[in-house]
Recover the amino acids of this structure.
């Protein structure tokens, strides 16, 4: 049970995020109104995604340094979970955009950049699947993962800030701190970030264990002869 | 290290010169691509708006450089690659390829620029800035594409992989280059572009440095 405390925490925090996120009082700002609640889902999922991508890059580096397949397993599963969160984040963002900016897709630089970021990681999956040798798959996958991440950072964090964007904190718009993150929002926002990140870790962890079992079974089958 | 790089660059140039058809092919590719866009947009001189001119130009340069750089690791067969593996350090190989491909991309983009000016008219007001931007853009394109062609050469189905792996990564460079070139075409004050040039240089540096660090791992496999 001790080892599972973080899973319990994840469930409690997720329940809190959903209940508090939908029921607690939120400040009513013009245009945003009640849609500000999307903040607890859209923004926090992207935070979770970024954290998981960082984990994946760290493990890719570890793999390249050591050549042990177990590190590569971690990298691919965290990237998978991050892609899932990225897709959910972009869909929730589009819904939010429909009700505040008027369109599902309004050509906002950050919106475009995140779509391109997702393309990068889909390409990563295709690259991995196009290779057959397991060690080559791991090595080249790791190289591309790090390379893509180094392009992902300027794409998401630097470029949108140089142009006009509808997102807060860009192109002269005030950032979170200046405008809508009052203490009521913070009370749900930070736990929600933790909750989604923990859920992502949990997902990655499950797939990782399945992958390890699969490998063990395979080894057993091969060694039987 | 530098001697090694210079020797390797000379080798690339000699090889290219020996098989002139590849070089000529890519140059012809640029000219035909410009002609196709010219005919399909149905534009006459000066008829096309400046943002469209700019965007068409960069898209053509992007596609031609993807094609030009894609062959950089496939062209030589396995045995010769093994030979390089034994005599040269991977760092020298990637740097020499990046420098050589920058030159190639620069030549392509200059040729594209000339053909564009002749056929579609030349709206550029600040020529030195435009050329400087071309130089920076070529460096970034070549750093990114050389690394990706190294990755794609390890996998089968090369052409598709090359495109899907490189397009998302190259977009930050492409967007910055398009912005600066728009400023240069409009002849805006240079101070406005300097900031963006520095950003472009910084992105190039990030991509180049990652390629430099990662290539030895790719080369070994």
């Amino acid at each position: 049970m001790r080892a599972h405390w973080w899973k319990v925490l994840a469930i409690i925090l997720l329940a809190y995020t959903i209940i508090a996120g939908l029921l607690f009082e939120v400040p009513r700002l013009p245009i945003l109104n009640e849609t500000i609640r999307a903040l607890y889902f859209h923004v926090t999922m992207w935070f979770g995604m970024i954290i998981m991508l960082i984990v994946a890059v760290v493990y890719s580096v570890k793999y390249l340094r050591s050549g042990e397949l177990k590190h590569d397993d971690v990298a691919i599963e965290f990237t998978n979970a991050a892609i899932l969160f990225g897709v959910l984040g972009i869909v929730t963002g589009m819904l939010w955009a429909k009700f505040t900016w008027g369109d599902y897709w309004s050509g906002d630089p950050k919106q475009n950049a995140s779509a391109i970021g997702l393309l990068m990681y889909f390409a990563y999956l295709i690259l991995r699947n196009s290779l057959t040798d397991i060690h080559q798959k791991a090595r080249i996958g790791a190289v591309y993962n790090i390379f893509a991440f180094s392009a992902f950072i300027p794409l998401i964090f630097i470029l949108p800030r140089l142009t006009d964007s509808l997102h807060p904190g860009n192109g002269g718009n005030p950032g979170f701190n200046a405008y809508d993150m009052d203490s009521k929002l913070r009370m749900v926002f930070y736990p929600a970030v933790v909750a989604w990140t923990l859920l992502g870790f949990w997902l990655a962890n499950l797939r990782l264990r399945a992958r390890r079992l699969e490998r063990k079974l395979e080894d057993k089958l091969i060694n039987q002869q | 290290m530098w001697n090694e790089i210079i020797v390797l660059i000379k080798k690339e140039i000699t090889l290219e010169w020996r098989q002139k058809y590849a070089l000529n092919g890519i140059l012809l590719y640029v000219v035909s691509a410009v002609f196709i866009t010219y005919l399909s947009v149905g534009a006459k001189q000066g008829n096309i708006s400046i943002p469209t001119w700019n965007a068409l130009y960069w898209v053509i340069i992007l596609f031609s450089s993807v094609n030009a750089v894609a062959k950089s690791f496939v062209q030589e067969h396995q045995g010769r690659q093994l030979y390089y593996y034994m005599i040269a350090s991977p760092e020298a190989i990637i740097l020499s390829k990046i420098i050589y491909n920058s030159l190639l991309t620069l030549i392509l983009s200059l040729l594209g620029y000339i053909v564009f000016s002749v056929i579609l008219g030349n709206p550029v007001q600040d020529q030195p800035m435009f050329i400087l931007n071309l130089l920076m853009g070529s460096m970034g394109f070549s750093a990114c594409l050389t690394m990706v062609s190294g990755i794609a050469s390890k996998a089968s189905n090369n052409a598709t992989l090359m495109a899907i792996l490189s397009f998302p990564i190259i977009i930050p460079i492409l967007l910055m280059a398009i912005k600066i070139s728009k400023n240069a075409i409009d002849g805006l004050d240079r101070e406005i572009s300097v900031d963006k040039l520095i950003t472009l240089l910084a992105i190039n540096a990030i991509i180049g440095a990652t390629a430099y660090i990662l290539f030895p791992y790719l080369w070994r496999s």
About this structure: Chain A has a mean pLDDT of 81.
